[in-house]
């Protein structure tokens, strides 16, 4: 495991958006108090856990109220002994547009350490971080804000095979991320049976993924639109991310035992 281990985890749950459709988005899927907890398994072993929280905040940017998003990941079990990880990502997003104003990351993965503080100026397409000023896209996200924004994209008319692309800032550069809609599928999880929308994000072969690796992501086919499972083959074995607990949802839980 390298530092990309937890980037993979959060990329698995930061999934779909389309630049042409980023205007006029309003929040209909979440509210403060929501908490999602995931388990990441390497084969049959639970390697890590991740939590996503929406917190109330009195902070304002440009006089506008924000949501405070917190994403955290940590290794567990024997993985925590041999490769200890404690990662935290914070994002402050506009309550109306859901676009980020401020993003911070505090990464601790074995001997690797990284901190960053990034300020987004969306109207100027400018991003200012610890390591300089960068040119953004028309709408640019961090990993946490991308996840919550994407949950509010209207997929009612999405066709099978339709591809979506988003732009996010990570590790001092703006990157595009593309994902294709596969269709609807009902899956069984530890929380129960869930009706889902299935996607296949584009991945790059390299130090983690095989040349022919396929990544699949399932999100709830309801108003909550939360990821419940992701699965991908890596160079040695496979990695599965699954929702373990959801509380504070805006709408009733989308599963039945």
UniProtKB/TrEMBL annotation:
Signal sequence residues: 1-19
Asked whether the keyword Signal is assigned, the reply is yes
What domain of life is recorded for the organism?
Bacteria
Q: Which UniProt keywords apply?
A: Signal
What is the name listed in the Swiss-Prot or TrEMBL entry for this protein? DUF3108 domain-containing protein
Source organism: Hufsiella arboris
């Amino acid at each position: 495991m390298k530092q990309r281990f937890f980037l993979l985890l959060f990329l698995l749950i930061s999934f779909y958006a389309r630049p042409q459709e980023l205007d006029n988005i309003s929040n209909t899927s979440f509210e403060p108090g929501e908490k999602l907890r995931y388990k990441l398994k390497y084969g049959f072993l639970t390697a890590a856990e991740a939590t996503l929280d929406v917190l109330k905040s009195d902070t304002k940017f440009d006089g506008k109220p924000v949501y405070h998003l917190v994403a955290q990941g940590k290794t567990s079990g024997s993985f925590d002994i041999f490769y200890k990880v404690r990662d935290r990502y914070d994002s402050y997003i506009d309550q109306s547009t859901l676009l980020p104003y401020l993003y911070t990351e505090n990464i601790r993965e074995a001997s690797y350490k990284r901190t960053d503080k990034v300020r987004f100026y969306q109207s100027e397409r400018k991003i200012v971080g610890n390591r300089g000023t960068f040119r953004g896209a028309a709408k640019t996200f961090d990993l946490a804000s991308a996840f919550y924004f994407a949950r509010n994209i209207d997929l009612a008319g999405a066709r099978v095979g339709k591809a979506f692309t988003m732009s996010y800032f990570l590790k001092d550069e703006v990157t595009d991320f593309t994902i294709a809609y596969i269709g609807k599928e009902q899956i069984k999880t530890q929380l129960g049976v869930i009706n889902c929308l299935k996607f296949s994000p584009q991945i790059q072969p390299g130090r983690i993924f095989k040349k022919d690796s396929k990544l699949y992501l399932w999100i709830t086919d309801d108003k909550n639109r939360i990821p419940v499972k992701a699965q991908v083959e890596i160079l040695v074995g496979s990695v599965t991310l699954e929702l373990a607990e959801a509380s504070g949802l805006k709408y009733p839980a989308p599963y039945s035992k």
